[in-house]
Amino acid sequence: MSTQPQTSIDDHVVTLNPIVGMSLEDLARAGVDLLQAGILQPMVAGEHLLRFNRELVKVLFGTSAEEAPARDRRFADDGYRNNAVHSRLMQSWLALGKSVNEWVDSMGFEGNELERAHFITALATDALAPSNFLLGNPAALRKARESRGASLLAGMKNLVDDMRNNHGMPRQVDKSAFTVGENIASTAGSVIHRSEILELIQYQPRTATQHAQPVLIVPPQINKYYIYDLSPDKSMVGYLLDQGFQVFMVSWRNPTREHRSWGLDDYVVALNEAIDVSREVSKAAAVNVVGACAGGITLATTMAYLAGLKELDKIASMSLMVNVLEPAVEDSVIGLFASDKAIEAARKKSARAGVLDGADTARVFNWMRPNDLIWNYVASNYLMGESPPAFDMLFWNNDTTCLPARLHSDFLDIFKDNLLTGRGELEIKGVPIDLKNVTVPAYVTGGTTDHITPWQACYRTTRLLGGPVTFVLSTAGHIQSLISPPTSTKRKYFTNPKNVRSAEAWAKQAKPHEGSWWPHWSQWLQSLDGSKVKAAKKPGNAAHPSLAPAPGTYVFD
């Protein structure tokens, strides 16, 4: 099975990783280390410079064999092959990148030092790609001629607008095409419970009878909840309703400076209240809980908290999707720069502001993948004068939220000290957190091309929990593996009833299945309890009446 990364919506997604922070000091230190190594080894640098010059001569005379990878969209235009000037510009840049990479490899760096050096040099070389400049971009020049300069004027307007209204970053999505509650997050339902931290939405039934055990979805705190309820054809909520499930959804409040003291324990207590309300309204003894990304961390912690209170019988099952409970440095680019100083700097910054600003988090993430998240839009928005796409997933991803300073600090501690892997090292309201005490059936997913929460890291959860775990691997990235409706004909997923210790060994023995994993998950949920109840005619109950129609009020904060 292929696990090579691909460019997609998942390249845009902001999740837990940037919470750690990327210190400019650490970036500068990595650059200084590279320069010092280069100065101390001038002969090595000279050798690579000579090789680069020899390749430039080949480029000049048209004998160079340098060719961009077929998947590199920057050079997809035929002008880079048919036009002598642009072909030579591309080959010169490719030769530069190759020479720099070979130089870095020969400097004696190892492990994370080597990866940091490659990351730093890639930032510089990618910025110099000819596709980022008007004269080096044949498609932009052609469009400028054909439009008689109108594209350049439109691009200038886009640039000025971004400088004024988007912190100088190129826009990734046309937000005007979407309205929350109308053509996105539009599934019918009602808010039946509201606390300072969350709203609880109960969705309107679509079938005459429903499964007795409801599904409660816990979204990440980084973005709004409606990644689970995008357009009707991409709505996990809608799919579950069509399958006859009772569905409840947590909608986290977007905190401000005054909420700086909300910590993980406050979120766990609030989530426990939502679980109880879901049980009361559905008249079910236990609920199926679902979480992804940072929401999965909160959910898993809550499950261990309930286990410590001897109240885990309130939970029928737990599903964790594209979620890492045991982080490791090698899991992401940000881990390369997650030094103690960087972590403490991030902690102090949010403490001063009272929150970790979602827009700041997004900008950090953009620079982790600049080709897909910055230069791609520089070329399309500014050089081509195009408007960004109207794409529901990108709209959701740009609808960022903040984290309270204390919750941010708690997440940093979990990342830094791997607190969820220890038994009792983390406490919630005095209750030691031990994931081995979470003995309910669990369903865990990963995506083969997920570079944010790599599937191998997701698989480590199978060793942390104390109950039976079903692991499913989807052939997609972070968000595309999560939002995978059965209408997605290009999907495939893998199952293996044996959770062997090695993720790679699990994959070798896994059985492939065509299509989305959602039906497999639905069948798994139904296998836990097949009993049905008559669908409720009205949302909530006497103690928890309807407070507002879905999507609620917190989603607009």
Sum up the structure in keywords:
alpha/beta; 17 strands; globular; disordered N terminus
Overview in brief:
The protein is α/β, with parallel strands linked by helices. Helices cover 43% and strands 13% of the residues. An 11-stranded mixed sheet has the order 15-14-13-12-7-6-4-5-2-1-17, sandwiched between helices.
Question: How would the blueprint of this fold be written?
Answer:
Layout: H1 24-40, H2 42-60, H3 79-82, H4 84-105, H5 111-127, H6 138-146, H7 150-165, E1 189-194, E2 198-203, E3 209-211, E4 215-218, H8 236-242, E5 247-252, H9 264-282, E6 287-292, H10 293-308, E7 315-321, H11 340-353, E8 355-356, H12 358-368, H13 370-383, H14 392-398, E9 403-404, H15 405-417, E10 427-428, E11 431-432, E12 442-447, H16 455-459, H17 461-464, E13 469-474, H18 478-482, E14 492-495, H19 503-509, E15 511-514, H20 518-528, E16 532-534, E17 548-549
Parallel strand pairs: 4-5, 4-6, 6-7, 7-12, 12-13
Antiparallel strand pairs: 1-2, 1-17, 2-5, 3-16, 8-9, 10-11, 13-14, 14-15
